[in-house]
Design a protein that fits this description.
The complex is a heterodimer.
Chain A lengths: L15 H20 L4 H22 L5 H23 L1 H5 L1 H13 L4 H15 L6 H12 L4 H7 L4 H17 L12 H20 L6 H19 L7 H14 L2 H4 L19 H14 L7 H12 L6 H17 L3 H15 L1 H11 L5 H11 L4 H14 L3 H14 L1
Chain B lengths: L1 E10 L2 H4 L5 H17 L3 E7 L6 E3 L3 E3 L8 E11 L2 H8 L10 E6 L19
Classes of the chains: A mainly alpha, B alpha+beta.
Chain lengths: 419, 128
Amino acid sequence: MKAGSPFKMEQGKETLSQLFHLEFSKMVAVISKLFGLEHIEMAEDIVSETFLLALKTWEIKGMPANPAAWLYSVAKNKTVDHFRRAKIFDRKIVRELTIQQEKEARIEDFEFSHQNIRDSQLQMLFAVCNPAIASEAQIGLALQILCGFSIDEIAEAFLSNKETVTKRLFRAKSKLRSENVKMEFPPENEIDSRLDNVLHVIYLLFSEGYYSKTQNQILRKDLCLDALRLGIILTEYDKTNQPKTNALLALMCFHSSRFSARETAPDSVTLYENQNKDLWDQDLIRRGLNFLHLSAWGDQVSSYHLEARIACWHCMKEDSMEKWENILYLYNQLLLVNYSPSVALNRTFALYKANGRQAAIEEAEKLNLTNNHFYFLLLGELYQNTDNDKAISYLKKAFALTRTQTEKEIIQRKIDSLK
Amino acid sequence: MKDFVLLFRQPITPETAAPEMEALAWLKKWDDWFGGIAAQGRLVNMGIRLADQGHVLKAGGVITDGPFVEIRERLNGFIVIRANNEEEAITLAHGCPILDIRGTVEIRPMALNNIRTNPILNESRFTF
């Protein structure tokens, strides 16, 4: 799968695992909507059985012309069967005959239509990002239910083990039940605050993919693409298609555009300044600009707006004073909305480019983030060529604090080049 | 940690009332200075900027256009910062652009810590 094709994924030329990965979340959402979120595990079982049958059948007969339609039709039959069996234990339905009849009439009618899939996925997104669920569990649930990641993949993405992930997901699903979380669109007056949480989870999914600890490149790209896909679902509904939604999408497009330039070889990261800018995906940059344009109405400036505009400046190849003064301005604004050490460090780097080395050194030393290896990398950069001994001593501190092998190698090369 | 209010006062004399540089550069100076405090995680609240003009209501219902106080400085705005002690708060106040136009920064500890604080929750990890 190419990083630059998040929008082409729907076109049906995926490999089997990508097909399952994508269809899993759609079918689980639709079936969960039908049965109620409390039966989500049953929905997952139905979909898993459907995939198993697909594997067996397709092995003999070959893949059908429209594999998604095949999956939908099998899943639908299984769902209707399950419903007939399930109603035996669902006392409420048995007791209230009229409701049962109504529901039975509906169960025959349900379709995996484009509209139904989209509606169900959007409602699932709001259900998973319910504030009643702990934030860490939201990410895990989102990965499993909305992105179709297996337990193994989630464990790998978070450098955790299967048991921990399984336990965490089990707890999260119990919580969905005990808090009686429903698959529904939030009421009008709550949409804004609920949307913030949804956007935040999508942002975290994307960050996890973009700056992940795992070495599995495909896994990481999939994560970013899933985050983009979920964001796009939000733009398809008036109430969630807000400026901040578009700002987040712009941000994700701009960052994704550098995927190929960033990962030129497995297990290594090419830093921004060394990237072959011809590898930047111009199509994604254009899409990002379009989303950025759509984000520019209303009077709300979210942190996504500011980050998207920073990322947009970084998509311009030419280094100019105007570029860095704008980036500095945006980082200053971002710090006022949301402080974080990495924003503070990036801001100081922009200050160096815009206001010069001396100003940046003075500001950098005030930050005093002595447990952050990026802090020492920044100081190393600032002293480079004027006081190489000092630069090297800072780089050595950065080296000692760095955990990943990839980064250690980059720092070592830098130290060697200054000697 | 304790919260301090930094009050910016600007002298009211014709030659220093307006900064002697272009408006954009003046704004950039303030932005960079606020950004520097925020980068240290010490900016609690952006406070407010005050427009130059306004009215003063005095006892007996007397309304005037100002001067706002019977001195030659006017209040320009304020921010709230966080520091370990007064000395550190004074250090943070250094470099304030108001000093460039011979204004002053007044550093006042807050008597009641009831101001809404900046959220510190951004997980942004994108680095360039």
